[in-house]
Specification:
By secondary structure, the protein is of the alpha/beta class. The protein is built from 10 helices and 8 strands.
Length: about 250
């Protein structure tokens, strides 16, 4: 009978409701991009059309990130800015890159809400004695991700935090899962990973010997008969019971 010692989580659409596909996420990207435009203009960058700049950056930053994830590469917002600014006719000045990257994430640490029951489930799992952690694909540097978790009052749940932007590989690359395993100091069979993607999360975890639990996202069904999660839940409050069933099997 397996006994799990640690539960690792994805963040976006697993613990945090990003609102992707419903317009919320996309609208926030445009707001962030507009802040970049204003920060660069204040430094003297030649930006003729603020709206075009913001819309182009919102689209291209997401496209650049998704392309990197498809190649299982970890990049951060500063990498994006070094690529994007010359495309808009702006010379790459490192001070401007830093200002642009900082502006993109300034002031939105808690813009997205948590999924139902997230805080309560984390408290219950912590109370059961599980060690908790996160593995997240993200453009945000780890220090900004940590700031966001701290602002939500969640960071103390997660002594282990692995971000693609810091380790330079992205899920489902085995190295990002192994980085978390090494930080925990546990064999993979004692670790469960919970995420909302069959390929990046469930298959990635299972490939290194962890268990993979899929949490559903209502507006984005996940179906791939070649990937079978060890458990499938609709909402987070179902997770403790799912873990109990897995441990009893």
């Amino acid at each position: 009978m397996p006994t799990f010692a640690a539960i690792l989580f994805d963040l976006g659409d697993t613990l945090v409701d990003l609102g992707e596909g419903r317009g919320d996420y996309e609208a926030r990207l445009v707001v962030r991009a507009a802040r970049v435009c204003d920060a660069l203009a204040a430094l003297g960058a030649p930006i003729a059309d603020r709206q075009r700049f913001a819309e182009t950056l919102a689209h291209d930053s997401e496209a650049r990130y998704q392309a990197a994830v498809a190649e299982q590469r970890g990049i951060d917002i500063y990498d994006v800015m070094r690529w994007f600014l010359p495309r808009m006719g702006i010379a790459v000045d490192e001070a401007w890159v830093q200002a642009a990257g900082g502006a993109f994430y300034q002031g939105t640490p808690t813009a997205s809400g948590l999924r139902a029951g997230a805080r309560e489930v984390l408290a219950e799992l912590h109370g059961r004695g599980y060690r908790l952690g996160v593995i997240s694909n993200t453009l945000q540097p780890g220090r900004l991700m940590d700031r966001t978790l701290a602002s939500r009052g969640l960071i103390d749940f997660f002594p282990v935090r692995i971000y693609s932007s810091d380790v330079h590989v992205a899920k489902p690359h085995p190295a990002i899962f192994r980085a978390a395993q090494e930080a925990l100091g546990l064999p993979p069979e004692r670790i469960v990973y919970v995420g909302d993607r069959l390929g990046a999360d469930v298959a990635g975890a299972q490939r290194v010997g962890m268990k993979g639990v899929l949490i559903e996202v209502a507006h984005r069904p996940e179906n791939d008969p070649s990937i079978v999660p060890d458990a499938r839940i609709i909402e987070l409050p179902e997770l403790p019971a799912a873990l109990s069933r897995m441990e009893a099997s």
